[in-house]
Amino acid sequence: MITKPINCLNKCIMVPSFFSNPIIMLSTFPLTPTKETSFHNFPKAGFHSSTPTVCSNEGGAQRGNLDFLHVMEQRGVQADCNTYIWLLKGCGSFGEVKRLHGRILKSGFDGESLLCDQLIDVYIGFGEFECGVGVFEDMPQKRVSSWNCMIHGLTRGQLSDRRVLHLFLRMIREGGSVPDLDTFCGVLRGCSGGSVGGFKIVEQIHSQVIRYGYSNDPIVGNPLVDLYAKNGYVNSAWLVFENLCWHDSVSFVAMISGFSRNNLEHGALNVFIQMLKSGITPTPYAFSAVLSACAKIEFYEMGEQLHAQVYKWGLTSDTFVCNALVTMYSRRGNMVFAESIFSEMGINHRNAVTYNSIISGLAQRGIYDKALQYFDKMQLSGLKPDCVTIASLVSSCAFTGDLHKGKQLQSYSIKAGFSSDIIIEGSLLDLYVKCSDLQTAHEFFDSATTKDNVVLWNVMLVAYGQECDLSGSYEIYSRMQLASMKPNQYTFPSILKTCTSVGALDLGGQIHTQIIKTGFDLNIYVCSVLIDMYAKLGSLKMARDILERLTEEDVVSWTAMIAGYAQNGLYVEALRLFEEMQIRGIQSDNIGFSSALSACAGIQALSQGRQIHAQIYAFGYLTDPSIGNALISLYARCGKIDEAYLLFATIDIKDHISWNGLISGFAQSGHYEEAMQVFTQMNHAGLGANLYSFCSALCASANIADIKQGKQIHARIIKTGYESEVEVGNALISLYAKCGSIVDAKQKYYEMHDRNEVSWNAIITGYSQHGCGREALDLFEEMKQEGVMPDHVTFVGVLSACSHVGLVNEGLNFLKSMREEYGIVPRPEHYACVVDILGRAGLLKCAKEFIEKMPIEPDALIWRTLLSACTVHKNVEIGEVAAQHLLELEPEDSATYVLLSNIYAVARKWGYRDHMRQMMKDRNVKKEPGRSWIEVDNLVHAFYVGDRLHALADKIYDFLKDLNDQLSKMGYVQDRYHLLNNIEQEQKDPTVYIHSEKLAVAFGLISLPSAIPIRVIKNLRVCSDCHNWMKFVSKVSNRSLVVRDVYRFHHFEGGICSCRDYW
């Protein structure tokens, strides 16, 4: 027998090439091989693929390794530690390992560290972790390699990351071995599968890495970056990445992945650019990650550049890269490119993600037929559609309201076994909700396989919110609480939006309490909806408090607050907040700009509006429809007709909002004729008027007292079915009242089935303007009895009514009740009404004292009211005081100079009168000329004082001469010279001073049939002479005259005026 030294045998055993040649094998062992010991019968299974094949056991007991030991013993060769290590590597079953382990124990090698390490590795490799732990625990001395073997074994077996951590911490505590790079790599890889328990645990691992000097090594740094990022600590991951001594492709991919996973797409793109600059070849995963980032943040141009890089690096056939490209182009809406990439991929490179991306892209753009074709292709290719595919198609049906196709997909999901999937259930419920099939949605919700999905509850809240069904919404919310379903950040906004739409502020406050209890009171999205609710429902202080408690600068919350101020008429506060938002560096969105423009329009702040317009242009929002409409409204309401028309012309698709912006803007800025022209153009353009269009047109007709046009609009309103709308009823009341037909206004008021505070205000103000003060006050009492709370507009009407009929004490009592009974703080217009009450009654001294004791600083309106009363009652002393304040407040207003000049003229103080006139010339103040309008044969005719430009001027003056002769016979005495001194009376032609309202009335008498009342509008207050003249005219002509001046209506009939000479 030839013996071989053990070292020689071990050398042969450990060299793989030795066993690759059976001739060498046979020459080494000259014994005649038996069936059991032949080379070809050694087991081929080994733990590592590179391990040499030593034996096999085809159909027999697995004894190859033990037979080999037997051969060695026959040759007199004693196996050592290396022999057993080699044999363990070649074991093909757990049984072989156990038998070899037994021989190792008999041989006394169980204390050898290398052999124990191999035993641990093999046991764990066969899934027998506890056996490996037993070997590890029995080791007399544990080297770092032993610890590493256990750590890597746990990692390779995908066992609990906590077991990896506990083992690592035990290694640190026992202190017998110093962790090396391999240790940390194993620990970090073992913890990368899931959450490791928070930032402190990750930080402890990092601290040990730093302690042992490996913090800059990419071998440890790369998995540490990955671990930080997976647990959401991106800043820490970035610090580790930055401190690495060099960066390889793994480093960059880990950082790109970290940014992408945490929705920090800009960071991922920046790292990718840095990767390219470093000269490192991008991996397919890096490309797919940054392409996905471009799609998420809509950096489509950069995505196209990356597409070119994909071609450059030859990655056009990579499935992950191509999937990302398909997704990016689908989201952009470039389905041509998306389908092209899909086609180029080839059938072997497509997977379910590929089909999901293309189907979702097509479905979201309403290309359902093609989406369904790809759906069929997906099935034919052997790829089973998953829940994402079905959900995408169902969601697209929900988006377009295609309930029929949605139900077909539901049938497919049932057949495919997806019907109980929470994604499918959520999509199907959303389908029924968006298709307004609330009954089926409720049935589907009740039959859902699980109610543990909060999304389903949220969708049902949205469903009832769409129907403004607060009771149904609250029922779902209550059931949710009873089911112990924990709400998320989307639950509360759903019901809060319903509270907002129906005005349920009290319930909204209760929900707010629940938000605080559940810890969502600092959630940005929830807070933005709370701010929107409180702001829209008038609780602005609460909304502002929430905004100021926010820890993050959220543009949606700021925008909601700005919009709230604007919608509640607090335009100055809205603009201040908009300015503060910009100072804080918060970039406004389209809604913020739109709200700021609305605020500018509300106070005619044209200069500030132009500045915001410039910002809109700079930030690229000019093409946004909401911005365009807001700009139209701004310039129209500021009276900039040409600019409003120019902006209107630039809008490609002109909707109701665009047209209404022009109509209402022109109407509110006093350009009523232009408003009516736009209303007519809107109808000719084929766009039927809506509720807002009709209301704006009625407003314009009312302000030019065009009752004929107003009645035509009224007829169209009846035809289109808008007459039952409360807003339309209110506008019609105002129309008829302002056109002098208080009877029609009253009739419309009593025809309304539903009324709000605006309805009451309109009819009370109408009665007040027509001098029907008692009737107005009776309606006010009726309003209170019906439980309708008066507002500041109501009290303007009530106080004006007291003024027109001389109810001094009643007016003072009403002012007092505003604060004491109704909690309404009087505004300047209320104080002006009280001054008017006292002034009309001749109590000028009391009026002056009242002004001096007011809790607010008197404005120009208040002083002008007092000055006007002084003119009527010829009080020079108090008139001069009022005029002095007016000249300080509004030195450019001509009314002040004219009124004071008239006071001096009445008092025969001609020098003072001339001084005032010269002051007007020196200051270049132009007096507003008196002007009157009357409509005859669908044409509005305008007259000035002493006007001879009219085509029938001669006929009018001849008629006036004859008419005045008749009036003189009845006792009328013309007071045409009370403002002229004796010299002026001699020099002036009497016809030069015929006021415009006399000319208009004369023209009406000539041109209109006797059955039609003569309606005249005057832009200034009717003088006493004209008022007296019209009383005589109504008696002589037996005609009804209705004159509307700047203060009120005068109805002349049978020689009597409705104001009873008190105006």
Automatic annotation (TrEMBL):
Q: Which domain of life is it from?
A: Eukaryota
Q: Does the keyword Acyltransferase apply?
A: no
Q: Name one Pfam family in it.
A: E_motif
List keywords of the entry alphabetically.
Repeat
Which molecular function terms from Gene Ontology are attached?
RNA binding; zinc ion binding
Residue ranges of PPR repeats:
248-282, 351-385, 453-487, 554-588, 655-689, 756-790
Gene3D superfamilies from the entry?
Answer: Tetratricopeptide repeat domain (1.25.40.10)
Annotated DYW domain residues: 971-1063
Q: Which GO terms describe its biological process?
A: RNA modification
Question: What's this protein's name?
Answer: DYW domain-containing protein
